[in-house]
Amino acid sequence: MAEATTQSQLTEEMEELSVSSPDSGASVLAEAVARVEGVTKVYGAGATKVTALDDVTVEFQRGQMTAIMGPSGSGKSTLLHCLAGLDTVTSGRIVVADADISTMSDKELTVLRRDRIGFVFQSFNLIPTLTAERNITLQRRLGRHGVDSDWFDKVVDILEIRERLDHRPSELSGGQQQRVAVARALISKPEMIIADEPTGNLDQASGREVLSFLRRAVNEYGQTVVIVTHDAAAASYADRVIFLADGQVVGELQHPTTAQIFERLQELEK
Amino acid sequence: MLALSLTRLIAQRFRLVSTSISVFIGIAFLAGSMVLIDTLGASFDELATDINEGVDVVVRSSELVESGFAQVRGQLDESVLATVEGIDGVAEAQPNIEGYAQLVDAQGEAVGNPGQGAPTIGVNWSDSDVLNQVTVAEGQAPRKPDEVVIDRYTAEANGFAVGDTVTVLLKVPPEEFTITGIGTFGESDSLMGASLVMFDFTTAQRVLGSPGMISSVSVAAVPGVSQEELRDRITAQLPIRTEALTGADSVAELQGDISEALSFFNTFMTIFALIALFVAAFIIYNTFSILVAQRTKETALLRALGAGRRQVIGSVLFEAVLMGIIASAAGIVAGIGVAELLKRLLGTVGLEIPGSNVVFEASTAYNALIAGVAITAVSAVIPALRASRTSPLAALREASVDDSALSRSRMVFGFLTLAVCGAMLMAGLFADISNRLMFVGLGAAGIFIGVAAWGPIVARPFARIVGAPLARLRGLPGELAQENGMRNPRRTATTAAALMIGVGLVSAISIFAASTTRTVDKIIDDTVVGDLVIESGSQGFGGLSPVLAEEVSALPEVALASGVRIALTEVDGEGQTLLAFETVDMGDLVDVGIVAGDPATLGVDGLAVLDTEAEDRGWALGSEVTLDFVQTGRQAFEVGLIYTEDALVGPMFISNDAYEANSTEIFDMSVYVLANDSYTTDQFRTAVEAAAAPYPNAEVMDLGELKASISAQVDQMLTLVYALLALAVIIALIGIANTIALSTVERTREIGLLRAVGMTRPQLRASVRWESFLIALLGTTMGLTLGLFFGWSMVEALRDEGITELAIPLPQIGVVAVLAAGAGVIASLRPAAKAARLPILDAVASG
After folding, report:
1. Which residue of chain A has the CA closest to B484?
2. Full residue range of the structural domain in which residue A8 is found
3. B841 in contact with A at a CB cutoff of 8 Å?
4. Is the pLDDT of residue B116 over 70?
5. List of chain A residues whose C-beta atoms are within 8 Å of the C-beta of residue B760
6. How far apart are CA B687 and CA B672, in angstroms?
7. In three state form, how does the secondary structure of B368-406 look?
8. What is the pLDDT of residue A9?
């Protein structure tokens, strides 16, 4: 009971914060790229039944970077996976670019992931047998789409990996590997980039680099980015932070500072 | 450590099951052939005992000539019977006559094929209750010259019944008989599938033997006289060139002949079982190499915790031995089924084996078990050593892709193996040594191993070059297949090597067969001048009544006809097969390249000799030579002809007149016919066919048809060899499926990533399929290359034996290549489907 009270209090505080945010007007006007509507996700059955997402409703705006945060087991990764079409929902629906993905077949989901979504995972983002360049163009070539060479050049230059294009993943540092993964995510100009702990395996400097590249993609090219992270500093790059706990959205912050995020997390984990 | 091996074996049982299958198949076949041989041996032994039941002494000619697998024994004068009957202690004596007798069925076709299958035998009926082991099950014994009894198996298989009239092919022109009875042999309906016709004594002598002659005498002793004693009493009274032996010795001799024939069959089957196991060894080696590599971290942890190198080796070997035991035990049990299957297969081709039980000797169990365990353990030695070299620090390192092609030791090993085994192969093929077959076998096996050791050098460039168009045409799945084919050259090469063996042997054999066929074609083109050949299909036992050649000769449409016969004789104490011709005008029928002499003057004592043979023996035109025939003994001959072309007629031949003077078994194997130019080809052929019509075993062929029929015979043998080699190919395909499955497990995360970023299931399946295709294609290419080399060496080695033409059957080899590479794709279907079904999130998260 006590915990529930704390959470509802937190939510109220956060709503106040977001109202007072100077950018709140802009976010209301922005069009939603993806909408999660009343989504519940249950794993297992009977005694081992786990409710990972419990009637979650949330929108992700175009041209924004959104971070999803929460303690372990809060359902943040499940939410991301469902949003990316990697996992199916138990009830509710998810709409990505005006298409209801909760009713899609495996094949439709595969094509959605290939053509409309960019991915950056925590590690093992690249196919070891392919060079950096071939990893970047992987998704385009899976769909037998051409690669826009101007855009390719631009992405490669922004990410500063031109020198590394002929190298295989084993010859790249962790930071370089993640930058190649970001390049792959950007190259098809997807509806949104989904990044699951993209800096989780990196040292601080490399992590910051990757995040600022994602930030630039949002600022300069209007890219939509959704990231899951447990690192408050990483989340501070986002326009908006959504907090999850026990499978429910328990609040959000607009343009928060690291300190603000850290504070909320501390409270959530109590 | 042993507990760990066990736990691992259980945990990874599904991976190891497919490896075990390769051992299982090989052992099942090995044990199956052993059981079959033992079963055949026991059945034949029993039959040999049964048909000699009650026989205490056998009297026969002591004249015997053997050459290769053929043997001929002389006939006896029938007066021997009276001599034997007069000896004290003889209760009963029965004359035996044996000869060629082939039934003709209702459709006018000759029953059985004595040239290739079970013999078609005629004997005389005996009324003795003691000495005759044939029981008349239906009807009655033959009493008149036109009555016969036939065996029940032949009767049932061809729809003959008591009262039917049947035509029988004999040394005299075909005659009609009435079937008065159906006979059985104890429990059995058949003498191992042979067809048997029983005539009354006088008829038998006329149609099977010769007037006044018999084949042997069976004797029963009065009670109280032992076999040995009776034998000695009889021996004392026998004329020259006649011998007596006890019933027991006769049975033992027959059993010895049978076991000699079976040991040839046994060797033949064992070779194919060993080939299958050899391929299985590659699969085991590869699987253990992959498993050891996948367990690097686990092994390193054990090493860090203090496990010694020997313990690591022990744990891998223990696992291998345990797997070998389980797979072999299952294989041995399955072998009984395989034997039963093969036995039924033999039954359908007429070799009916009496008795329903298969014979399972304990030696089968332990020989097969030892073979299976040894092959598994030996194949796992190198992976075990590799595992033991794992550094404890490997536990801490990120496993990287091992794309090294060759270690120095592997390179040296491959080189030495190739050098030594290449030399062995060459020695076996070309040097004048004993045990040539063993040298060839070990040499070829070693070359396969050496090439497999060097395979990784080829694997990367091969996958790159062959995979390039794949990447271009098939897009990303093709590109990934290409990269995956290149990423672990050793694995790719070893997997491909298993397929290489089957493909290599199949293509070598097909080159050998094609070369044989082409050589025969060339011999016929170069040597046969005649227009038609009448073939009997006999290989020396029975054939065409010589009356046919006389009848054909007399036709106005025919200029000339000559029967061709096979005689066995002894020259300088050694058995020698020689042909006999109507030599008077033989130059018009066959061109043997006469150097000196005149075939027309060979007569009854002239011998024609090949020039090189004459040189070796120091003979010249006019030399006196002694030939020893079973029927007439030593005969003085004179070399009357020297010739150069031996391909058709062999190293020596005589005239039909000389043959008739020295043999009672007069059959034409074939008849060569020359047309009379005054008639058209059609008129000529129609006339010859009409003359041959009453002889259902006679097939009239022109030279083209003759070539086709020989090539069909070669193809038949080839089909059998292909069927047996298919075993090796199937095991190799299991190996491909196995490697692909293991690689898929290794690449779970990669597959998860590809699926996450949008690779569809069909694309993923295609990628796995094309990788398997590349491996299969590599194996096929290496196999074809080695097959060409082996085929060429075999033909070169047999040049002296008469295989003079090298032929490479491109269409056949093409079919082999397409099938092998295609089968590689099929082998990957299951692992590909499994990979495509991997749950994406689990795969991405696995690590």
Report:
1. A129
2. 2-269
3. yes
4. no
5. 107, 110-111, 114, 142
6. 14
7. HHHHHHHHHHHHHHHHHHHHHCCCHHHHCCCCCCCCCCC
8. 44
Q: Are B209 and B97 in contact (CB under 8 A)?
A: yes
Q: How far is CA A38 from CA A31, A43, A226, A264, B522, in A?
A: 19, 17, 19, 24, 86
User: Which member of B487, B760, B841 has the closest CB to residue A86?
Assistant: B841
pLDDT band at residue A40 under the 50/70/90 scheme: very high
Q: Which two tokens stand for residue B752?
A: 């998860």
pLDDT digits (tens, 9 = 90+) for A96-127: 988 899 888 888 999 999 999 999 988 888 88
Question: How many domains does the structure of chain A reveal?
Answer: 1
Q: Rounding to the nearest 10 degrees, give the CA dihedral for residues B96, B100, B105, B111.
A: 110
CB B227 within 8 A of CB B247: yes
- Return the residue of B nearest to A109 by Cα: B758
Residues B690-713: tens digit of each pLDDT: 999 999 889 999 999 999 988 988
Name which of B197, B203, B198, B208 is nearest B170 in CA terms: B208
pLDDT tens figures, B519-529: 999 999 988 88
Return the CA Rg of chain A: 19
What does the domain layout of chain B look like in residue ranges? 1-55+240-399, 56-239, 457-529+703-847, 546-694
Residue B427 near residue B440, CB atoms below 8 Å? no
Dihedral sign from CA coordinates of B641, B647, B651, B656: negative
Stated as kind and residue range, the H or E segment containing B349 is: none
3-state secondary structure of B487: helix
DSSP B241: T
Q: B663: which residues sit within 8 A by CB, 6+ positions away?
A: B567, B629, B631
pLDDT digits (tens, 9 = 90+) for B448-483: 999 988 888 888 889 889 888 888 888 888 888 988
Which pLDDT score is estimated for B269?
Answer: 87
Q: Rounded to an integer, what distance in angstroms lies between the CA atom of residue A29 and that of residue A59? A: 13
pLDDT for the residue B304: 78
Amino acid present at B561: A
**Could you tell me the two tokens for B459?**
């694997």
From A124, A126, A142, residue closest to B758, measured CB to CB: A142
Give the closest residue to B633 by CA, choosing from B267, B249, B44, B240.
Answer: B240
How many whole angstroms from its chain centre is CA B726?
14
CATH of the domain at A51: 3.40.50.300
The CA distance from B568 to B416, in Å, is: 48
Please tell me which residue of chain B has the smallest CA distance to A141. Answer: B476
Q: Phi/psi of residue B634, each to 5°?
A: -75, 130
Chain A interface includes B754 (CB < 8 A): yes
Phi and psi at residue A116, to the nearest 5°: -115, -10
Task: Give me B7's structure tokens.
Answer: 């736990």
Q: DSSP assignment, residue A101? A: G
B331, two tokens: 């294989």
How many residues are given for chain B?
A: 847
Helix residue ranges per DSSP H, B663-798? 681-692, 703-746, 748-756, 761-797
% residues pLDDT > 70 (chain B) = 95
Beta strands B624-629 and B558-571, pairing class: antiparallel
Residue with tokens 């196995």: B738
Q: Which residues of A touch B476 (CB under 8 A)?
A: 138, 141-142
Whether A170 sits inside 8 A of B759 (CB atoms) is: no
Residue B480 in contact with partner chain A when CB distance is under 8 A: yes
CA nearest neighbour of B74 among B170, B209, B219: B209
- Rounded (10°) angle between helices B436-487 and B247-294: 20
Q: What pLDDT was estimated at residue A14? A: 41
Q: What's the mean per-residue pLDDT of chain A?
A: 84
H-helix or E-strand containing B546? Answer: helix B546-553
Sign of the CA dihedral running B159, B160, B163, B167: positive
The residue-averaged pLDDT of A186-206 equals: 89
